Amino acid sequence: MVSVIIHSVVFLVYLAAGAGVGAGAYWLYDYGAATAICLGGLLVVGCGLIHVATAPRDVRLQRRERARLDVELQALKDAQTVTAGQIEEIRTTLTDEAREREAAITGELREIAVMIAKFAERTDRKIAAATLAAASAPIASRPRPRSDQSLLNAVKSAINDNRVELHVQPVVTVPQRRVVFYEGYSRLRDESGALIMPGEFLRVAEPSGLVAEIDNMLLLKCVQIARRMIRQDKRTSIFCNVSPTSLADETFFAQFLTFLRENRELAGSLIFEFGRD
């Protein structure tokens, strides 16, 4: 509406200018009436043609630009709506997954708690039964603690007869229950097959220099198990316990370094733990 009024005013201005030119030609320059009217008409027609040739193009361009902007604005609105929907969908999915993981972990922890409680209950019953049996057994039949010499002889016999055992304890992830590590412990057996725990044999093995031999045998067994694990799952590693007493032994340490060089392919599967059992 505004553009129509503007064009009408401009056209009136053209008419006034044509009338002014025609009147001036008639009155000032003594042109004939027909000539004056022709001059005024030519001015009006020329201005009109110029206006028609320029003004509509600007209007069309403005309309096209406005239509293009409207289309782009609508596209941005649609994209914003789609993005908001995707964000809400992702948020819902992540929330559901987090709840599922939390529920799974909670369930695993409950199962582990129940297993620990049952294990503790069974252990308590066994301890109580063993305590009762020991208390009711005749004094003569109760096992007597080994003397240091007897224990030392048992340790030497276990080393000579290759009765040094590697006991492993798995370490798993929760809730996947996938074994990621094994904790290795050295155990000895006497001639009767009874276990000799580190708390016993270290008491006599360290002063006698036998710990290095025990650790050597333990390292060999760790390598054997590590090679088996590599064939099954390269992501699993084993902790191998090495006594500080062995590290202080110059002969053992040199052999230990040679051992590491010869088994470099097991670097990702062997983890050495320096300390007591």
Sequence-ordered SSE layout with sheet pairings:
Elements: H1 2-27, H2 33-136, H3 148-160, E1 164-172, E2 179-189, E3 195-196, H4 198-208, H5 211-232, E4 237-242, H6 244-247, H7 250-262, E5 270-274
Parallel strand pairs: 2-4, 4-5
Antiparallel strand pairs: 1-2, 2-3
Helix pairs in contact: 1-2, 3-4
* Poorly predicted segments: none
* Series of H and E elements: HHHEEEHHEHHE
Structural class: alpha/beta
Mean pLDDT: 76
State the major sheet: 5 strands, mixed
Oligomer: single chain
Query: What is the count of helical runs?
Result: 7
The whole-angstrom Rg is 50 Å
Provide the helix percentage. 55-70%
Describe the global form.
Answer: rod-shaped
What is the count of β-strands?
Answer: 5
How large a portion of the residues is in β-strands, by DSSP E?
Answer: 5-15%
Key terms:
277 residues, single chain, alpha/beta, rod-shaped
Description:
The chain is built from seven helices and five strands. The radius of gyration is 50 Å and the shape is rod-shaped. It has helices spanning 2-27, 33-136, 148-160, 198-208, 211-232, 244-247, 250-262, and strands at 164-172, 179-189, 195-196, 237-242, 270-274. The chain is 70% helix and 12% strand. By secondary structure, it is an alpha/beta fold.
Would you summarize the structure shown here?
The protein contains seven helices and five strands; from the N terminus they run H-H-H-E-E-E-H-H-E-H-H-E.
